[in-house]
Specification:
Layout lengths: L1 H24 L12 H17 L4 H13 L2 H15 L3 H14 L4 H13 L2 H11 L5
Helix pairs in contact: 1-2, 1-4, 5-7
């Protein structure tokens, strides 16, 4: 449940960040943060506020991610937006596979990651599906 909530929050925040440049290019002019009404501010931060309040254990991670975003260059932020767009357009089966790969690779050394990537590329679609199913917790 925590993973689903974090994924939902992440996707919501990335969606807001992805939409802001598009909105800025339209003829509508949006005010600076200080000029937004309290209702507009609440609308923008509601998902983050809900997550912050509902899961105190996630607060350090949320703060670290916000600080990391601030340190990113425009190119790194653009790359993050492209990754979000890819994720949004990915079919559910491929998302499941990507989650399984991410979790499997999280604690690996660089050499182990390279080996898994090579192994993955050599697999048939059926072998990949079996690999994902073997590493996907039931109920997800």
């Amino acid at each position: 449940m925590h993973h689903v909530r974090w994924t939902s929050l992440s996707l919501s925040l990335l969606l807001v960040l992805a939409v802001l440049p598009a909105m800025a290019s339209q003829s509508v002019t949006y005010p600076a943060w200080d000029a937004l009404s309290p209702a507009q501010r609440d609308l923008l931060i509601a998902p983050l506020k809900e997550h912050w309040n509902s899961d105190p254990t996630a607060r350090p991670r949320l703060m670290q991610r916000a600080q990391r975003w601030q340190r990113m260059t425009p190119e790194e932020r653009a790359r993050a937006h492209r990754g979000f767009d890819r994720w949004q357009n990915m079919d559910p089966g491929k998302r499941e596979a990507m989650r399984a790969l991410f979790h499997a690779m999280r604690d690996m050394t660089p050499a182990q990651r390279t080996a898994l990537q090579q192994q993955w590329r050599a697999m048939t679609p059926a072998q990949r599906q079996a690999w994902v199913q073997a590493r996907t917790p039931s109920g997800d």
